[in-house]
Design a protein that fits this description.
By secondary structure, the chain is an all-alpha fold. The chain has a single domain (about 5-290), classed as Glycosyltransferase (Alpha/alpha barrel). It is about 55% helix and about 0% strand. The protein contains 13 helices and two strands. The protein has helices at about 5-10, 30-40, 45-60, 80-85, 95-105, 115-120, 145-160, 165-180, 205-215, 225-235, 240-255, 260-275, 280-290; strands spanning about 195, 200. A two-stranded antiparallel sheet has the order 1-2. It is globular, with a radius of gyration of 19 Å. About 50% of the residues are buried.
Length: about 300
Amino acid sequence: MRNAAILERLVAIRNPDGGWGTTADRPSSTEPTALAVMAMAAAARAAESTAGRSWLIEQQRADGAWPVTPSVPEPSWCTSLAVLALLDHDDGDAAARRGIDWLLVEKGIGVPLRERIREFFHGTKTTALDPTLRGWPWATGTFSWVEPTSYAILALLRAWPAGPPRPATDRIEEGRRMILDRTCPGGGWNFGNKRVLGVDMEPYPDSTAAALLALGALRVDPADVRESFDALERMLAETRSGLTLSLSILCYREWRRDPAAMADLLVADFDRTGFLDETRSLALASMALADATVPFLVNGK
């Protein structure tokens, strides 16, 4: 198992309460715990995955959402990751379904009225996106962005393997259209703005891999994302962090592309840096290198 050392390091930095922090010795929070739980489940580490699921269930809000961290109790984008970690487990499926209900009604806000009035009178638009397309925000009551929308789409698709019901299908479709609308000129994605004040924005590798992962799960036409794969490959030539490589490998697996060369780079990066004990990178790398199907993959292997 090429991910054995990565997995063991991830186990070693687990907190006594069953969860994981952003790095070793940090308090447990939702995102790293959810990602680590998925990695543990993929590796059949029953004790660690069960303890992590228990921590997640304890943190769920009454409305079905999850906060970023217990010390900041507002609902957040991390709900999608918690849902992915808990789905299809006897001890977590009910909590995951409550999280799905919350995701179905959560929407990012449109362009504020004040900004639309300013654009009308000045005859210029701050951004070049379609404000009617609302995906999911990082935090309730804020604008929609690419990464939380991508993870919400994955959660909704995984919740209904045989096909989502109409309300979920409608939200997924709006999310798909929003992601494609935010594509940067030349391909790829950043956090969500493709052009600001007439200036083309540059894509980011992590956001691009996450968006392609969601679009692969949706089985979009490969022609619609050809430029974005080209952009990702250009960025990978310059950015080879554990996080970027792991998300990119998962993206390639979803699209049934060969990630072997990236897997070699990922293992080498861990051997060199240990990913600085950053939980997200350790968990995603473990899933990227796992032989088993992982929750982040809807159609891929």
